[in-house]
Amino acid sequence: MNPSPSIRTPRLSLTWRVIALSSLLLLGLVVLFSWLGHTNLTRQFESSRAEHNERQVREIRLALERSEEGLRQLASMVASVQVLGEALQAGQPDQLVSALETQWPTLQLEAGIDEILAFDSDGVQHAAWGEGQALNQRPVEEWANRVLRDEMPVTALRCSSDCRQYAAVPVLVDGGSVGTIILSRSLADVTRQAQQVSESDVALLVVGNLDGVELSEERTIATWGGHLVALTRQAQYLPLLRSAASQASVEELLQQPLRLHHLGRDVELSALRMDEDSDQRSSGFFLLASDITPQINAIGHDTRVLVVVGLGGWLVAELLMLAILLSPMARLRRIAGVLPALARGGFAEARATIPRPRRRLADEIDILEGSTLALASQLETLEQEVSARGQQLAERVEELARERDFIGSLLDTARVFIVTQNASGRIGLVNDYALTIMGTEEGALLNRLFEDVFAPGETPDDLPPSMPHLEERPLVTADGRQHTIAWYHAPLPGGNGAAPGRISVGLDITERKAAEARLTWLAERDPLTGLYNRRYFQEALGAALLSGRRGAMLLMDLDQFKDVNELCGHQAGDLLLRKVAGVLTEELGHRGVIARLGGDEFALLLKDGDADLAIRVAQQINRILECTRFDAEERRHRVSASTGIALFPEHAENPIDLMASADMAMYKAKASGTQRWHLLATAQGAREELQERVYWEERVHRALEEDAFELMVQPIVRLEDRDVRHYEVLLRMRDEDGSLVSPGCFIPVAERSGQIIALDRWVLRHSLRALARLQEQGVSLAVNLSGQSLHDEGLQPYLADELAASGADPEYLILEVTETAAVTDFSTARGVLQAIRDLGCRTALDDFGVGFSSFHYLGQLPVDYIKIDGSFIRNLPTSADSRVIVRAIADIAAGFGKQAIAEFVDKEPLIEILLSYGVQYGQGFHLGRPEPLDDILARHQGDGA
Question: What is the pLDDT of residues 591-611, one digit of tens each?
Answer without folding.
Answer: 899 999 888 899 999 988 888
